[in-house]
C-alpha cells in the first residue's frame, strides 16, 4: 500500500519488479493524465546532452505538472517512458534511478520503457506520459 492509498499488486509468477510496479490498484479519486513531458525549459527549448540530463528535467516537469493538478508523487499510478535510444537508457539505469528517487522517492508506478525512432522535438531523447489518481 502506498501513502495515497493505492495498492501495489505483485504476482509470484513474475520476476520481482525493480524500479517499477507490476500493477497498481488505484484508490478512488480524480484521474489526472500527464502527457508529453520532455526536457523542455520554460522558453520551449530542450536542454541536456545526455539521457540522464534530459530524464532529470523531464521527471521534474512531470512532477511540476502533477503538483499543479493538486497531486503528489505517490498519486502517480502509471508511467510510459519513451526514449530514442534504449541502449543509452539501459546503460544509465543507476543514475536514472537516482534522478527518479530525487523527485518521487521510492514510489514506483506501473511503468514501461518504449523505444521510439524520434520524438516531436528532434532534440528530445526522452518523453514521459503518466496517469495519477488524486484522492
Describe it for me?
The protein has about 140 residues and is of the alpha+beta class. It has a single domain (about 5-135), classed as RutC-like (60s Ribosomal Protein L30, Chain: A, 2-Layer Sandwich), CATH 3.30.1330. The chain is built from 3 helices and 6 strands. The protein has helices at about 50-70, 85-90, 95-105, and strands at about 5-10, 25, 30-35, 75-85, 110-115, 125-135. Strands 3-6-4-5 form a 4-stranded mixed β-sheet. Strands 1-2 form a two-stranded antiparallel ribbon. Helix 1 packs parallel to helix 3 (about 95-105). It starts with 6 loop residues before the first strand and ends with a strand. The model has no long low-confidence stretch (mean pLDDT about 90).
Shape: globular
Number of helical segments with 4 or more residues: 3
Q: Radius of gyration from the CA trace?
A: 15 Å
Write the element-wise H/E pattern from the N-terminal end onward. Answer: EEEHEHHEE
- How many individual β-strands? 6
Q: Major sheet: order of its strands?
A: 3-6-4-5
What is the CATH topology descriptor?
A: 60s Ribosomal Protein L30, Chain: A
Structural class: alpha+beta
Query: Mean of the pLDDT scores?
Result: 92
Estimated helix fraction: 25-40%
CATH uppermost class: Alpha Beta
Give unreliable regions as ranges.
none
CATH superfamily: RutC-like
| Beginning-to-end CA distance, first to last residue | 14 Å
Biggest beta sheet attributes: 4 strands, mixed
CATH 2nd-level architecture: 2-Layer Sandwich
Beta-strand residue percentage: 25-35%
Count of folded domains? 1
Amino acid at each position: 500500500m502506498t501513502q495515497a492509498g493505492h495498492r501495489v499488486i505483485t504476482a509470484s509468477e513474475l520476476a520481482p519488479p525493480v524500479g517499477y510496479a507490476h500493477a497498481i490498484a488505484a484508490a478512488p479519486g480524480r484521474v489526472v493524465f500527464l502527457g508529453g513531458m520532455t526536457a523542455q525549459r520554460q522558453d520551449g527549448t530542450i536542454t541536456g546532452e545526455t539521457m540522464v540530463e534530459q530524464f532529470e528535467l523531464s521527471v521534474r516537469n512531470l512532477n511540476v505538472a502533477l503538483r499543479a493538478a493538486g497531486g503528489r508523487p505517490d498519486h502517480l499510478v502509471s508511467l510510459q517512458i519513451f526514449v530514442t535510444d534504449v541502449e543509452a537508457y539501459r546503460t544509465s539505469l543507476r543514475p536514472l534511478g537516482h534522478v527518479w528517487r530525487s523527485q518521487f522517492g521510492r514510489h514506483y508506478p506501473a511503468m514501461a520503457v518504449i523505444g521510439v525512432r524520434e520524438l516531436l522535438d528532434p532534440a528530445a531523447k526522452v518523453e514521459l506520459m503518466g496517469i495519477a489518481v488524486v484522492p
